[in-house]
Amino acid sequence: MVVVLSWPFVVFWLFAKRTPAEAVVAAILGAYLMLPRNYSIDLPAVPSLTKDSISAIAAMVAGSMMVSAERLRALPLGAVQPGWLPRSRAVQLLLVLLAVATVLTVLTNGDRLIYGGGRVQPGLRPYDVASTLGNTLFTVLPFLLARKYLAHPEGQKTLLIGLAVAGLAYSLLALYEVRMSPQLSRMIYGYFPHDWRQHLRGGGYRPVVFLQHGLWLAIFFCGSFLAALSLWRNSEGKMRGRWMLASLWMFMVLILSKGIGALGIGILLGGVILFLPVRLQVFSAALFAGVLMTYPMVRGAGLAPTEQALALAYSVDPQREASLRFRFDNEDILLERANQRPLFGWGGWGRNRMIDDKGQDISVTDGYWVIAIGSKGWLGYIAEFGLLLIPMIFMGLRWKSLALTSATAGIAMALTANMIDLIPNATLTPVTWILAGALAGRLELGRVAADSAVQPSEPVLRRNAYTRQVRRHPPPVLTHGA
Asked: Is residue 125 one of the residues assigned to a domain?
């Protein structure tokens, strides 16, 4: 408890000593990686405060209080976007849709669910609207922070370096657990975050450190590996050699993390970074985003190549095939349940799960996409995954006019890795949201002027409605807006 409640002081110190981009990256990544997962502050009628929400709220307050006009003048032009709400109409629409879907999910699930064996699931009350909306806001706060502070190419490079360096530092703790068993969370915070048996792999151990599960750690290391690889591909001199060593190290750590899915994703997207130029990396991310956005529709229509995936898994390891088949079977069960309330879903408290006539839960929820559809409905799914994926699709369509840098392409690759992993797993984290927010901000920022390090006397915007606000926080000269 002391560690979590002390984190806001760390966040304020970061904003006092570092640039806003560095402070946001350190605040969100540091809290996610180092603070205990099981602690929360539960107050009546308000959402629970966890390490993720506390760090995001602290960063938002610190940024509002400590990023003064004087400090802004010392930053590159456009390093801080004006206002907290996105100017992109597409992002605005998705945020409104997410809020509306959240409210309607609560209001359409007021009925109690009664099963055999005396099992009862309570209905949602209008009283729960405020708490549910608060949880939604806390979830997207890292997105809004990244959109504001990590839109500029320099901020995006900071995010990429932060992701790589955090992975390098965290790998030392992970390697300790590979050798000594996953004990750090128990040793320091007094608990183990998941089922111990799931972290016995290949005659050794799957590391967890302070995260929810070893799969969460593996996909984080995958993103760190891709970040280091992107930095190596686009560096020169001594730094190029250092990032090459960092990439090799992170690839080794990714292998030792024993996450087959994350390793496969890392190899696939690592090849994209190694062999394709920036524009094709961005286009590849957009293509993956389009496939991932429509995957649930294809899966629900029975058109997904599940049998081919099972055959491929069997060729690698029969146990992997059995595990994948189990996941597919449960997805079918959960999709059947979701189709009973397709628009707004079943809400929380496990109402989206399949219960048999004896009151036994016969479903296992793994992939986040099917969890989102079951609990939030298609409306909530489109809003949430739209915020995460649509910026990448738009960038693929407009990469030339935006003059995107290699840092943006690296962030897109790291986000693509995480989004692919959401098909089999529920690894949606603040890191996912901060990557997506940075891309949404870059899309909104448009083409950065060549002299973006100099503040113009009168900023030029396409929309005059923002003039007064922009004079307080001037962005770069825009030739293309989102």
From this structure: no
> Quick one: average pLDDT of 105-116?
90
Sign of CA dihedral 141, 143, 144, 150: positive
Rounded CA separation 178/192 (Å)? 15
Quick one: pLDDT at residue 99?
Answer: 96
Specify if 21 maps to a domain.
yes
Helix, strand, coil proportions of the chain in percent (round to 5)? 65, 0, 30
Give the 3-state secondary structure of residue 305: coil
- Structural domain contains residue 55: yes
Comparing CA positions, the residue from 83, 74, 248, 67 lying closest to residue 154 is 74
Q: Give 301-354 pLDDT, tens digit per residue.
A: 888 888 888 888 888 778 878 888 888 888 889 999 999 999 999 998 889 988
Range of 1's domain? 1-75
Cα separation, 112 vs 401, in Å, equals 53
More confident residue, 227 or 48: 227
Q: What is the residue type of 447?
A: R
**Average pLDDT of every residue of the chain:** 87
Q: How many domains, the chain?
A: 1
Query: Is the predicted pLDDT of residue 95 greater than 80, yes or no?
Result: yes
> 251-281 pLDDT, tens per residue?
999 999 998 899 999 999 999 999 999 999 9
Domain presence at residue 389 = no
Helix (H) or strand (E) holding 200: strand 200-201
pLDDT above 60: residue 470: no
In angstroms, what CA-CA distances link 356 with 8, 114, 212, 378?
45, 11, 29, 24
CA of residue 408 relative to chain centroid, distance: 16
Q: At what angle do helices 237-256 and 260-275 cross, to 10 degrees?
A: 160
- Which of 81, 24, 22, 146 is closest to 445 using CA atoms? 81
CA diameter of the chain? 72
The per-residue pLDDT for range 318-327, each reduced to its tens digit, is 887 888 888 8
Structure tokens at 236: 């020169």
Q: Specify the DSSP class assigned to residue 190.
A: S
Range of weakest confidence among 121-135, 255-269, 378-392: 121-135
